[in-house]
Amino acid sequence: MNDVAQTADIHLIQRCIPHRYPFLLIDKVRDIVANTSAVGIKNVTFNEPHFQGHFPATPIMPGVTIIEAMAQTSAVMVMLSQGLVDSNALVYFMGIDKAKFRRKVVPGDVLELHITTLRGGARVQKFEGRALVDGELAAQAEFTAMLDKSSGQG
């Protein structure tokens, strides 16, 4: 795997992607195989702002935030694989396909975000994501993202 880190803690994640509270949705990325796959970890807690309204009496992590966590995991993998840590590069969503939600994700769950590259490229890549809780499929989706190395972060 050359010099690509196999694990990214919260500090390395923040050097790879610009997301911050309340929209940084991963706590760790492990099992990183350059340009191929990675596993994001999200420790779901009741303190997250979306639980105030989704749903107040029955807190459930919104499906779109699960897909966003998948995308953040893939962005960390891309940034590490391409040597873009501490750069101004950004990874943007281009499309989401085949999204399915199979299980509620609730406070106390540990969400594992298994990402696999379906199609690589210099700028545009396609990924498959599977979100698991205790080995049980919670959500899945395919998504396309674009790497923009010329982005400026503010």
Look at the helices and sheets and give the structural class: alpha+beta
The helix-strand sequence is: HEEHEEEE
- Kindly provide the radius of gyration, computed on alpha-carbon positions and rounded to a whole number of angstroms: 15 Å
Uncertain segments:
none
Q: Count the strands?
A: 6
Q: Using the alpha-carbon principal axes, give the shape.
A: globular
Q: For the largest sheet, list the strands in their spatial order.
A: 1-2-4-5-6-3
Overall pLDDT score:
95
Share of helix, binned: 10-25%
The CATH topology is given as Thiol Ester Dehydrase, Chain A
In CATH, the homologous superfamily goes by the name Hotdog Thioesterase
Strand content: 35-45%
From the coordinates shown, what is the CATH architecture? Roll
What is the CATH top level name? Alpha Beta
